[in-house]
Structure formats: C-alpha cells, structure tokens
Design brief:
single chain, 216 residues, alpha/beta, Rossmann fold, six-stranded mixed beta sheet, 9 helices, 6 strands, 44% helix, 15% strand
Length: 216
C-alpha cells in the first residue's frame, strides 16, 4: 500500500499581527523534521501543501526545494473568524494573547460550531469537513507511493477522526494534541484508507531537542 505522511506546520507566530509565518523556532523544528525523514530514508515522490505561508515555509525549511502541489482543503479553519463571530467582533485580549485562555476558548468555540452554532461564520462545519475530504481524495488519487503533505492541526484532527469513524467532537480533542511538525501516517489504496501512526515526533526524542517541542 502507499503512504500518506501528514506533517503539521512548525510553530507559527502566536499573538503577532501576522500569525501565518514561522517563528525562528519553527524553522528549527522544520529542519529537524526534514533531517529525521532523511535519516530514515523516507523520500517522498509527491509533495502537497495547503496554501498557507506557514505550511510552505515548513516544507522549505524541511529541505524540500521543489514546488509542491497545493489544495486549500489542507488549510486550517479560520479561527480568527470563528472567535470574532462568537464575540461579535470584540474578542477579549486574553483570548488573543494568553495561550491557555485562547485554546480553552477555541475548544468551546469549535464544539459550538460543530453543533450548528456561530451563524454568520465564513465557513460552516460541514463545509470544513467536505473540503478536508476533498483534500484527502486529491492527495491519495495518485500513482505515487510516498506522499508528503504539510497541513494544520484542524485538518489533521479531522483526517484522523474520519479514518476512525469517530464522532465530530473527537476531532477537536485530536486537534489540540497535534504537535508542531509531528508526523501522522496513513496507508492507502484505491479501496482503503487507514491510520497507521498519529502525532509522532522522533526528531524531538533527545533531551536537548525535547525542549523545542510546541503545540501552536
């Protein structure tokens, strides 16, 4: 069977005016992830990313200079929009800048979104589910045997939840576990798609590198 290896983008710029770019640490995380694949002899024969800058920067810093194919279904849900809708355009400062408050509030917001709330959001939960599935089909309808994908926590959580037939709420529990530059591996064929490995970070296994692990 063929392999689909999905890597979450490296650390972005949390709290900055432009979140969609890697931090200095994010570039280092990406280098380590690329090095781990190289040392394992895992060479992709197809590259796919979303359209976000932080995804493209992750791939480049992993050491891949080839131009990837892109699919917007691999992009993160627009959490800025969802939070803005929830708070009617006035998102509290702690939600924007304090990590613990942000992710606790984000979890509550996504669960509401999944249940049909947040009317007026640019994207519905069902639209998100459908575009992630479209991206999965795009990445796996191929003769390639090793497909490397760079995506984000939400789509990765949804890919895993869907592959396991899990309820909607499980997607967010998975989403919040996904570490920056973690490796989630699926096996696929024309008839099958199943999870083999979730959220692995062999490149952070040493005591020194473990200090570089982040979740956002």
């Amino acid at each position: 069977m063929a392999e689909l290896l999905v890597v979450r983008h490296a650390q972005a710029s949390f709290g900055a005016d432009n979140y969609d770019q890697l931090s200095e640490l994010g570039h280092r995380q990406s280098e380590l992830a690329g090095q781990a694949l190289h040392e394992a002899g895992w060479v992709p024969d197809r590259l796919v990313t979303g359209t976000l800058t932080r995804q493209h920067e992750t791939l480049a810093s992993m050491g891949f200079s080839e131009q990837p194919e892109t699919h917007a279904g691999l992009n993160e849900y627009d959490f800025h929009d969802l939070l803005s809708v929830r708070f009617k355009g006035d998102v509290p400062d702690p939600v924007r800048h304090d990590r613990k408050t942000h992710f606790r509030t984000l979890r509550e917001t996504i669960l509401d979104w999944q249940a049909g709330g947040l009317a007026g959001a640019r994207e519905s939960w069902r639209d998100f589910v459908h575009r992630v599935e479209d991206a999965r089909n795009f990445a796996t309808k191929t003769d390639a045997r090793r497909v490397l994908v760079i995506s984000s926590g939400g789509p990765i959580g949804q890919l895993v939840a869907a592959s396991l037939g899990a309820p909607d709420a499980q997607m967010m529990s998975l989403n919040l576990q996904v570490k920056n530059t973690s490796l989630t591996r699926f096996f696929f064929s024309k008839q099958a798609f199943f999870l083999h490995e979730f959220n692995a970070t062999p490149h952070f296994s040493s005591e020194e590198c473990a200090k570089l692990l982040t979740y956002s």
